Amino acid sequence: MNKIIKKTLKVVFPIILGTFILFWVYRDFDFSRAADVFLHQMSWWWMFLTLIFGILSHVFRGVRWKQTLEPMGYVPKTNNCINAIFISYAANLVLPRVGEVSRCGILTKYDGIPFAKSLGTVVAERMVDTFMVVFITGITIVLQLGVFRRFFLRTGTNIDAIGDMFSSMTFWIVIMCIVGIGILLYYLLRSLTFFQKVKGLALNVWEGVRTLKHVRNMPLFILYTLLIWLCYFLQFYLAFFSFGFTSNLSFLAGMVMFAAGSIAVVVPTPNGAGPWHFAIITMMCIYGVDVMNAGIFALLVHSIQTLLVVILGVYGLAILPFTNKK
Known about the structure:
Blueprint: H1 2-25, H2 31-41, H3 44-69, H4 78-94, H5 98-111, H6 115-143, H7 145-154, H8 159-167, H9 169-189, H10 193-209, H11 218-237, H12 251-264, H13 275-286, H14 291-323
Helix pairs in contact: 2-14, 3-4, 3-11, 3-14, 4-5, 4-14, 5-6, 6-7, 6-10, 6-12, 12-13, 13-14
């Protein structure tokens, strides 16, 4: 019974959290105005172009994933890698972070790649993605520091208090205590029988992580990484030109909102629904966009891009059995 409750909470909680934030963000919103903009004012040519870059980002990610598997001696079909990426993003709409597991299962089924090892390459990918988010955010903050200060003030965040927390001795004492508890638990658990099984799984995952050191063509890997994030940015930035009220926003404004949105999607809600809307609307208001128009932009862009994720996921599920007929 407890397992059923836990599994139910894992599925239901992200949906409830995202729904609550969306309800709070759009509590006084005029949805008829959004429908009018969608039907009569939105430029579908620009929106279609954003979707092209959305698809390309998945394609580049699939090709890069194949590259990280090759050092372990596995050469899956490129189509399988790409379609697995399509399905993984769609799966994340149902349960955040489950997509990473699902795409490893697909390669296990169709290419015979051990699950734990492919999962290790996914962990390595996430490490690279985390670095890219931090890198992009760092550059953006330096270029637009004043905008981020206004964002924190608008959201009630005290930057000085955060800085004081990290510089206080109490904070570092707590960190050292957590590390000490972790070490103690490690030595206690290693004596248990199941620890060896967990250790074996962890070693397989670690072998997948280590593939980054042995990628045969590192410049190509870096190029794929840059292309993935360039496509992410263009998918977001070009959407500005789909609406008259955002078409005058600058490239730097796009960088700021893209960085804020990339951080917001870390919150475990389906496709970042709720936190992403809040971050984009708040940032747009700082740049002078009316709150109603900012809400329309966030709602329509996120809904259309989420629909693309669903369509690609359905396509991946449908095409995989046909492309893997023996």
